[in-house]
Every structure is written in C-alpha cells, then in structure tokens.
Amino acid sequence: MSDSLVFDPKGGMPRLLEIMARLRDPETGCPWDIEQSWETIAPYTIEEAYEVADAIEREAWDELKGELGDLLLQVVYYTQMGTEEERFTFDEVANSISDKMVARHPHVFGDESRDKSAEQQTRDWEVVKAAERKAKGEERVLDGVAMGLPALLRAYKLQKRAARVGFDWDNADLVLDKIREEAEELAEAAKSGSHDAIEDEMGDMLFVLANLARHLGVDPEQALRRTNAKFTRRFNAIEDTLHVSGTSPAEATLDEMDALWNQIKAQEKSR
C-alpha cells in the first residue's frame, strides 16, 4: 500500500506524509534524512519561508507552487520527528491551528457580528492573543516575541508590544528627533574606534529606525526588501551597461558607476 501511495501523483497530503515516514525509516530510509534533527532543520525552514516571500515579491507565480511545497515539507519533517518521539502528530498540529482559527474568528464561526472593520478585527485578535499568552504563563508585556525572528522584525514587534501599554512616542517627529540624537552618538562611537561602542550605537540606530517605520505605518522588513531589490536591479543595470562598452564594475571608476547609477535612477523615475 505504501508503494502505491508514494507513486500516486494525486496522493496529496497522505502521500507526502508517507514519503517523509519512508525517508526517516531507520532501516530503509535516506541516511541524510535520518541524521537530521530539530536544530539542523530549523535553518532550512527560515530559508524556505524567505524563498516563498521572494517568489511573491517577484510575482513569480509559477515558482510559488514549488516554494510553498518546500515550506510545507518543513512542517511535515517536524511532525514526523514529533511522531517518532511521541510528542505530537501531523493531525494534532493541524487540529491545533484549526482550533486556534475557530477561536480567533467568533464573528465567522460563532455568534459575534461580522460588522467590523479590519482594524477592529486586529484589535480583537490582540485581546484574544493576550489571553492565550496569559494562559501559557507569559505574563510580561514582551513575552512571546520570538527570539528567532530576524532582528529588524523583532525590533518592530517589541516596540509594537510596548506601545500597547503606552511606552511610545506621541508622533513620528519625536522619533526623528531621536534618530538625530542616535546619529550623533554613532558618529562619536565611530571616532572612538571601539568596535563594541560602534556596534551598540549602530543597534540603537537600527532600533529607532524600526520604530519610525512603525509610526509611519511601514513594515521595516518589507521596506528593506524593497530597497534590496531596487539596489540589485540598478547595480545589475550598471553592470550590463558597462559590459556593452567592453568593461566591468571592477575596471570602472566609482565616478563612472555613480554617473550610471544616477542615469538609471532618473530613467526609472521618469517611467
């Protein structure tokens, strides 16, 4: 039965679960898959999540199906290890998120009114999530903000959580004043030559920039991804232009590349 399911192109979720069980079989499975642990798989999970985000960012819809499959495989991997260690099964994981979604949407699955804005729904969610955190023994304001998040995203979430209890600037102008203060402190640290001081002040600068993004209603991770993509696009255009003229970035001067950058930037803005 296992073989017929493994090779069934329409086997769906049961097929994937069976494949993973076979890969992890200590007698007949794949040596690499058998050796993996929670810790070794975790970095792949983060990488796959970013590849999903990248495909969406590029609107590469043909690729997205495969990237989502790669991400789903991570969940299947963890649940197989959980099953082997008698911690939890795939069905228990699926039921857990299903229970959570039903509990968090009483306006869909219960008797609450659906006549509310997305903003009100977000506030309602926060109340429910706060109760869930309390039930898990997370009493402090910042409890539950995952340590494994990218640092910029975690900064954003920490500030957002603190703002709920009033620990926040009143407006973006005050955050800009703080940025100027942090810039001066960073400049002083740079003059000192102390790596530890520079790193500390650079962290403060990035932290307050994340706070400014929050005040302006911008996701700092998304903003930086957008700028990374813009930089890549423009630098590639510089490289292509130089290649046409028979040279390369390594051979060009900074002035030449800067001029091309400004030219490409102007062309993009004129479109």
Automatic annotation (TrEMBL):
Q: Which InterPro entries match?
A: MazG-like_dom (IPR004518), NTP-PPase_MazG-like_C (IPR048011), NTP-PPase_MazG-like_N (IPR048015), NTP_PyrPHydrolase_MazG (IPR011551)
Q: What class of enzyme is it?
A: hydrolase
Molecular function as annotated in GO: ATP diphosphatase activity
Q: Which reaction does it catalyse?
A: ATP + H2O = AMP + diphosphate + H(+)
Q: What is its EC number?
A: 3.6.1.8
Which part of the chain is the NTP pyrophosphohydrolase MazG-like domain? 36-109, 176-235
Q: Provide a GO biological process annotation.
A: UTP catabolic process
Superkingdom, according to UniProt?
Bacteria
Q: Which Gene3D superfamilies match?
A: MazG-like
Similarity section: Belongs to the nucleoside triphosphate pyrophosphohydrolase family.
Q: What is this protein called?
A: Nucleoside triphosphate pyrophosphohydrolase
